[in-house]
Amino acid sequence: MTDFANDATTGDAVALSGRLAIAVYEQIERLIRRGEFPKGVKLPPESELARRFGVSRPVVREALARLREEGIVRSQQGSGTFVIRGMLPSAAALPQIKTLADLLRYYEYRIDVEAATAGLAAERRTADDIAEISKVLAGAEEMLRQGEHQLLADANFAFHRAVAQATRNPFYVRTLEMMPNFIGRNQLDLVVSRQNSSDSYLWRIYHEHIAIFEAIAAADGVRARAEMQRHILAARDVVLNRQSLLANVEIDDRTT
Known about the structure:
This protein is mainly α. The chain folds into 2 domains: 79 residues, Arc Repressor Mutant, subunit A; 155 residues, GntR ligand-binding domain-like (Four Helix Bundle (Hemerythrin (Met), subunit A)), CATH 1.20.120. It is built from 10 helices and 2 strands. The chain has a two-stranded antiparallel sheet with strand order 1-2. β1 and β2 form a beta hairpin. The longest helix is centred in the middle third of the chain and has 25 residues. The chain starts with 12 loop residues before the first helix and ends in a 17-residue tail after the last helix.
């Protein structure tokens, strides 16, 4: 969970509320841009958004008001708040995933991109980058121990984004943000629904993240690439339910 409220310790309460509202607005706008809240969908209740972002409900209301002003969402009394703009053009640049073959192509692409990202992060990371990734991992561990599985999607994305930021190359960060929902809430929902032991699987993701982090912290680009590749391949196999699907799938290499 992104706890914006704890990031500030002093200052005028009104100014603080305004800064938090902007931060929440940016987070929700990013989720819409990435397609996690597609056009026509109803946003979660204010109370759930407040818990997700670690802020008060008035802060969420202010963020939603800004989204309404920009024509991104519309509120209906008694019904809730709905997304009316949908994904922005920048997020729609990647092809949509409509078939199992598309999903395999997506993971083929993601393996290359994220392995390269991890390798560069290991070569270029700063002390601040290491601290940020460590903070994200500590938050994920606490969520796991508390059983707050519904919050882990954000922590998962935060880890991958922190790694991308460590490359010092904004193109890697932007590429990550454009990737479909398989980094984030929808992926975890899909995975957990297919696992007999969601706790076991989610802890496995955490330990895979730890292995990637340790390679980056050690400035070992080769190992960081290998650990990230292993991590993405494992995610692919789970999403495809390897035992029943992967063995029977052949990728059609023809241009689509």
